[in-house]
């Protein structure tokens, strides 16, 4: 699969219009239904190539867009989510500088 192409599993006659938020590969047990004994085998069945990881991130982005941004009466939730995510990200990347400014209590 080249960059920008449809997934190899996508068949327009079977699936209809293409949805970037949908996984067209073989269905597997959802992560929430995996038992602890089967967890290693479940992770072993995952495709860990860079293209597969990029596809999973892309599907997550599109699902988030369809749920919070694209509805007609979209609220303010996506703006708050992006604000909290960016605040957390910048706190984490600056943590090594911020931890030196702690107020220590000496007894």
Automatic annotation (TrEMBL):
Sorted alphabetically, which keywords does the UniProt record give? Answer: ATP synthesis, CF(0), Hydrogen ion transport, Ion transport, Membrane, Mitochondrion, Transmembrane, Transmembrane helix, Transport
Name where it's found: Mitochondrion membrane
What are the BP-aspect GO terms?
proton motive force-driven mitochondrial ATP synthesis
Identify the GO cellular component terms for this protein. mitochondrial membrane; proton-transporting ATP synthase complex
Q: Where primarily located?
A: mitochondrion
Which range is the signal sequence, renumbered to this chain? none
**Family in the record:** Belongs to the ATPase F chain family.
Q: Which positions, given as ranges, span the membrane?
A: 74-93
Gene giving rise to this polypeptide: Dwil\GK19670
Task: Write down the superkingdom of origin.
Answer: Eukaryota
Q: What is this protein called?
A: ATP synthase subunit f, mitochondrial
- What one GO molecular function would you report for this record? proton-transporting ATP synthase activity, rotational mechanism
